[in-house]
Amino acid sequence: MPDGINDIFSVLQADRISKSFGSVPVLFSVNMDVRPGEVHALIGENGAGKSTLMKILSGFHDPTSGRILFDGEEVVLPPNGGAEMLGIVLIHQELNLAEQMTVEENIFLGRELTKNGILDRQRMQAQVQEYLQDIGLDIAPTARISDLSIAEKQMVEIVKAISRNARVLIMDEPTAVLTEAETEVFFRQVTKLKEKGVAIVFVSHKLSEVKEISDRITILRDGQWIGTKEAGDMSLDAMAQMMVGRELSDLYPPMREADVDADRVLQVANLTAAGVKDVSFDLKRGEILGFSGLIGAGRTSVFEAICGLEPIISGTIHVNGAETRFASVAAARDAGIAYLTKDRKAKGLLLDKKMRPNLTLFSLPKFVKRFGLDIKSEDAALERAVRRFDIRARDPDISVGDMSGGNQQKLLLAKVMESEPQIVIIDEPTRGIDVGTKQQVYHFVTALAAEGVSVVVISSEMPEIIGLCHRVIVMRDGRTTGTLEGDGINETEIVRYAAGLKGEGLE
Amino acid sequence: MTLSTANTTAKGRSMKFDVKTAGPAIALILLCIIGFSLNPAFLSEGNLSNLLTRSAFIGIIAIGATFVITAGGIDLSVGSMAAAIAGVMIIIMNNAVDMLGTGVATVLLGCGCSILLGIGAGWINGVLTTKGKIEAFIVTLGTMGIYRSLVTYFADGGTLSLDFAIRGAYRPVYYDSFLGLPIPVWVFIVVSIVGWFLLNRTAFGRYCTAIGSNEGVAKYSAIKVDRVKTITYMIQGLCVSLATIIYVPRLGSASSSTGVLWELEAIAAVIIGGTVLKGGYGRIGGTILGALILTTIGNILNFTDLISNYLNGTMQGLIIIIAVWLQRGDWGKAKASKT
Fold it and tell me: A403 to chain B: nearest residue by CA?
């Protein structure tokens, strides 16, 4: 067995697991094992088979071939979460908590303690209190789930798992929705669980986190097992390369020189809004301007305020030299400014609708002919967009929600570009999409800028900002702390501004 | 799946046979066959014309409700609103007799006021839900109580009667026919066509669907969500006022029992027709069929003594539950076969 997989020490082990859905194979003879008291990260691109493997390890899917060993013995895991009884708990990305119930009620959901047929609240609360203290979590057992932060909810899920005596905890992208501070708290809890001997499997796209928290790393690519390594032995680049299987240098198109004398199409001065304090910046024609900073630094809020999505408290905005303040998104759109949200599912696309109504929704007035919608020109627009953005749908009549993340993102881009904006703000352009699509998105952004469109890229992915932008503005706590240009754009500088070690706003 | 049906409606119904789309139509045909077999007079011209006229009230209101529900809202106040509008309309017309006489002018004044009142009442519902950020269910539950008590107050607990002198000029609106069809049916047809075009062929209709499907996406897609939602309530109000205008000459009076449970019948017609209660998908054609189905059930019970007429509500209730249950089952299958 490669890399020292040891039957005796593994609590849960996948042995040459293969899985096909219908005739489509998604996993090819994958090996993985988890030991008590270790954090084992599972990494790979979208579609590499991570989710499938996790679901097989927790009994939600059956393997097509191969064995699952639990405590060294071959088992067939009970389906539909029944593996929880064995101590194997999968925490889904979409948390499974009843929002309107309390922490205590959630933790004991389905196995409430009773005394003479009546709920024994006291005993349940006392037990929950104990669990919470154990893990060092400062929330009341009587707190309502809907009042908790996402990180706290996640911790409640974990407490729920522990209360069921979980020995193996499998988590699907637990940090995807957490801020950096919350992630830190989360990692502290994970460390505590580790000390208790719980085996933890976790999936993440954030490689630096993977490196920080895990003991071992298993890499999957296209359903193949690429390797399992000690985390200490791997650099971030090595991880990325094993995931992608090729050099990543061609990910970004060559940078076109920025035109220093280009007109300034957008000038923002002293903008203040909810979460935004005194922000000023300029945007030139054909420029790609990056906005970097930690999550919650106010980057999105700046542009939501500019585009009329959130009220402005004070400050001025000039578009093409004329002062404006957009009362609505429609007004911003008509002035040639479009904002592409990072929240594809809640703000970007109508998942239960098909591609056509989604594509034209943002610029629908364009498709009105004599009071009615011109369906023919909508269809023509869809055809154009599918070609231009390389949107691949199995069936043009498919609901958008059934399309892959990458194709959804391309459709969202197409939707916003349908309004032919002169300034486009793309928030997290590549969130949750695979490397191939990322590359397409980057080339598209660069091509747009070459055509004279000004692009703002808000991104938490440092390489993206560095590889794509002519100029980078760093924000922290609602303020701009620094501007980097040309060769000055590098990770260390951005981090120093973002973390508040350096910056204009410091006293 | 919702979309494939929307599309077949758009491209012409005959292109693809869709059980879910055809469901309400099949149900209506079945009801007609049952009605005919129980009593051949069911299909007589007189009965059919009576049936269509009666479905016009609920049908017109239900078309308004289709917009509200498609955009993710609900309006429980329509029945009370109809009663209040009828009451105010009668008071205005009675008082206008001295000035305008008992002719068409008074009737037109009454109708004009009715329309303004309807749109205004809808606007209040809309603004309270959007700007006031109160759930539509609560707002319209509140206005439902208010409008109902207002008509009781105006009628001083009794009945408001239209001046007999005016009835002569107003009567034809309910009792006359044009090209063989009663006037209320014509109003129903016109409202249906306009409603269908508005929902399926205009940007406004698309916006309603988008808002009902996902309000967040709608907001970020440059849709003025508050405005569109408010307009759906105003359309609802307008539809209520149109229904009231053709209803008043029927009895020539309004009381606290006018329009009772109309809101439930209207919502039922919408749901039976295949519009999704939580919004995001609406069908005007289905709503029309839904209204016809509800009226037909009552009509059949009136016509035969198989089941007591007092069980009309039971039959309607059963049909609603069965209709929604059938739709649900259908969707589950469609979803499963897709993935």
Answer: B339
Looking at residue A10, what DSSP letter applies? -
Q: Three-state SS across B90-155?
A: HHHHHHHHHHHCCCHHHHHHHHHHHHHHHHHHHHHHHHHHHCCCCCHHHHHHHHHHHHHHHHHHHC
The tokens of B112 are what? 């004009």
How far does Cα A188 stand from its chain's mean position? 21
- Full DSSP string of B12-50: -GGGS--HHHHHHHHHHHHHHHHHHHH-GGGGSHHHHHH
For an interface test with B, give the residue of A345, A373, A402, A403 to mutate (most B CBs within 10 A): A373
Strand, coil or helix: A9: coil
Terminal-to-terminal C-alpha distance of chain B: 12
Q: Do A328 and B280 touch (CB under 8 A)?
A: no
Give the distance from residue A63's alpha carbon to the nearest chain B alpha carbon, in angstroms. 19
Q: Shortest Cα distance from B193 to chain A (angstroms)?
A: 13
Looking at domain A250-336+421-507, its CATH architecture is 3-Layer(aba) Sandwich (3.40)
CA-based nearest residue to A495, from A481, A507, A479, A505: A481
What ipTM did this prediction achieve?
Answer: 0.82
Residue B200 burial (CB < 10 Å; 0-12/13-18/19+)?
buried
Chain B residues near residue A330 by CB distance under 8 angstroms: 222-224
Q: Using alpha carbons, list the distances in angstroms from residue A195 to A36, A37, A147, A200.
A: 9, 6, 30, 11
More confident: B100 or A63 = A63
Q: Does domain A2-247 have CATH number 3.30.365.10?
A: no
Residues of A in contact with B210 (CB under 8 A): 350, 353, 357, 361
Summarize pLDDT for A122-157 with one digit per residue, the tens. Answer: 888 898 888 888 777 788 888 898 888 877 888 888
CATH 3.40.50.300 residue ranges of chain A are: 2-247, 250-336+421-507
Tell me whether A131 touches chain B (CB under 8 Å).
Answer: no
User: According to the model, what pLDDT value does residue A323 have?
Assistant: 93
Sign of torsion over alpha carbons A96, A102, A106, A110: negative
With cut-offs at 50, 70 and 90, classify the pLDDT of residue B7.
very low
pLDDT 10s digits, B95-120: 998 888 888 889 999 999 999 999 99
User: pLDDT digits over B140-194, tens only?
Assistant: 999 999 999 999 999 988 899 998 888 888 888 888 888 888 999 999 999 999 9
Domain spans of chain B?
2-9+18-338
Q: Nearest-5° angle of CA A391, CA A397, CA A398?
A: 70
Read off φ and ψ for residue A179, nearest 5 degrees. -75, 170
**B contacts of A333 (beta carbons < 8 Å):** 222
Alpha carbons A186 and A159: distance in angstroms, whole number: 12
A384 to chain B, minimum CA–CA distance in Å? 20
| Tens-digit pLDDT profile for residues A204-247 | 877 788 888 999 999 988 788 988 989 888 888 788 778 777 65
Domain B2-9+18-338 sits in CATH 1.10.150: no
Q: pLDDT class for B19, splitting at 50, 70, 90?
A: low
Using alpha carbons, list the distances in angstroms from residue B309 to A409, B30, B54, B258, B316: 57, 20, 16, 20, 12
Put simply, the answer to whether B221 touches A328 (Cβ < 8 Å) is: no
